[in-house]
Please model this.
Amino acid sequence: MPSTLFTNATLACFDAADGYGLRAQAALRVDEGRIAWLGAASDCEPAGGTEVVDCGGRLLTPGLVDCHTHLVYGGDRADEFEQRLEGASYAEIAAAGGGIRATVAATRRASEEELFAQARPRVQALLAEGVTTLEIKSGYGLDCETEIKMLRVAARLGDELGVRVQKTFLGAHALPPEFDGRADAYIDRVCDDMLPRAAAEGLVDAVDVFVESIAFSPAQAERVFDCAARLGLPIKAHAEQLSDLGGAALAAARGALSVDHLEYLSETDVALLAANGTVAVLLPGAFYVLRETRLPPLEALRAHGVPLALASDGNPGSSPLHSLLLILNLGCTLFRLTPAEALRGVTLNGAKALGLEDEIGSLEVGKQADLALWDVDRPAMLAYRVGINPCRAVMQGGAWRRRPETS
Ligand code: DI6
Ligand code: FE
Model:
């Protein structure tokens, strides 16, 4: 693999405890797919055979990480968007058999090929904005065959589009209709059959549960977490999105990588996240689409030093958004994150939410050379402006996904 030297760059390294870790007039060398050196542009001398990219003062960041998506599914839910505009709530639509269940029916009907074809443009939209790692959850199959079909499609998206995809099993996302009134029996099925089989096929990097009154109770979540522990898999939770059931505290106490949503997280439970190194993944897309008003407890999360990540939650119901740059802007405008917090949330802390912070997410020697070069000179530009994609070039593992045009 040829070496590449980025010179005359503004680096946002995310290599310190906070801030961007900015280095102006800097250079960064990539060897064998990894970051081999970085420092002042005046200190580097390209060896023969090295490709040199003059960045012209532009911003070079770690490739972006979207650590929470549900991008593999059949159909769409534009009809429910219209119903909500006529006054129905997300929870009411779910209770009437729509919502996640509507997508489950469409996903069960779709072939693997159809699911792949439908998901590809969603992933491509993220990639166009500098994403080099994304997580994709199952959870619209709710039977063994369809959950495995979704996870296979997720793996294939990674292979064919040349992006790192982390696969999360979310069998406990909603109760399938054939188990109506028998949620505990469904959890038995998840633990005895679905999750062990998906894991045996090498399709599971982490296990997630939706802990909510319209989904599963903390006691049911615990059983899924026990099963994950037996299989040696890390856990996550959708928690405190619509009410406070204590799901985040439960997951954090068991060492969850992340707990996600968190609008109803109580300040007392924040300390448990901090104590266990669990990342708080904030999802402003769902907050925006559902027109929520209750904000996650940002001040308490900051005061306790909980790492904050931001993600798209791309899904057909509550967050049909496929732009991580828009999510940066929403995180700042709706949740009052600083641009530095927001960008850290889609780089280093997004990586941490996936357990990958030793490998990706910052510009540090030894890390994988996942890089995005932007037509901006200041990082705040990425969160500030909406509707212009300034992504100029992307390198994934030391190979160009998109080369910079020379100008
Ligand atoms: N919370 C969400 O935001 C998504 N899943 C979840 O547990 C929404 C899924 C959907 O509405 O299809
Ligand atoms: Fe989600």
Remarks:
- Residues 70, 99-100, 103, 173, 210, 238, 241, 286, 313, 315-319 surround DI6 (ligand 1) (CB under 6 Å).
- The mean pLDDT is 97.
- The longest helix spans residues 144-161.
- Residues 35 and 365 are 5 Å apart (CA to CA).
